Amino acid sequence: MPDENPDEKPAAERQSAGGAESSLAAQGENKSFVHGESMEIHSPDKPIHSKKEFLFHMFTVVLGILIALAMEGGVEWFHHRALVREARENILAEVRKNKETVDESVQEIHKQEADLSHIIDLMHKVESDRTAIKNQSMHFGVTMHDLYSTAWQTATNSGAVTYMKYDELIRYTDLYLTQQAFTSLQEQALNRMIEGGSLIEVTMKEDDMKKVPVEKFQAIAQEAYKEQIVEKALENISEALTKGYDDLLKQQ
């Protein structure tokens, strides 16, 4: 008696296995992905027998996809608005703080300009009268002020600036670029102060002012004049910053 063929199975068993495979294939084919999340598209509950039923089913599927995409777009829109609102609030708080700093610096800048004018006038007098420097004080200094840009950098790194209106973005950009110029000028004033302060310190250590060459007094006056130019530029930028801060805060 020939052996039974192992590949042959009862018809019912083959039908059951085929149905399971078809079911698994249908589940794999009826899934699509949108932004990493699965979205199931179910097949009709009953066979489609007419073109009208087919078009109705397709319309239902397309409508569902459009509604899902619209909801996702709405969520992203609200997220972007919240991101911009938070960035704007942080920037305005930073601007208020920086404005207080600039307002304080203006008075100090005026004082430093007056001190430098005194040094220049005194050096001119000492060239002809060495006794003019007796008991005279010469303040050759500069005060450094920090202007913060943390909120602006955070808004840039988070992408919030890409959702801002163009006019608003331009105002912020111009303001923070002006702050950078203010910081750069402070560094220049510091370098001038180091040069001028060193000359004054060396000169004032001389026991007899009459032995000091005229060129040294001229060099001190020249360094004081250079720093005075930097301080004047700082004054102008401070005024521009104050106006920019005020204009920005009034619009909010």
Keyphrases for this structure?
single chain, 252 residues, mainly alpha, disordered N terminus
- The proportion of residues in beta strands is under 5%
Helical proportion, percent range:
over 70%
Q: How are strands sequenced across the largest beta sheet? A: 1-2
Mean pLDDT across every amino acid position: 77
Instruction: Report the strand count.
Output: 2
Radius of gyration: 39 Å
How is the main sheet built? 2 strands, antiparallel
The gross shape turns out to be rod-shaped
Which class best fits the helix and strand makeup? mainly alpha
**Number of helices in the DSSP assignment:** 5
| Unreliable residue runs | 1-36
What is the first-to-last residue Cα distance? 98 Å
Textual characterization of the structure:
This protein is mainly alpha-helical. Helix content is 72%, strand content 3%. The protein is built from 5 helices and 2 strands, in the order αββαααα. It has a two-stranded antiparallel ribbon. A hairpin with a 2-residue loop joins strand 1 and strand 2. Helix 2 packs antiparallel against helix 3 and helix 2 packs antiparallel against helix 5.
Task: Describe the protein's topology.
Layout: H1 11-29, E1 31-34, E2 37-40, H2 51-128, H3 150-158, H4 166-204, H5 214-250
Antiparallel strand pairs: 1-2
Helix pairs in contact: 2-3, 2-5, 4-5
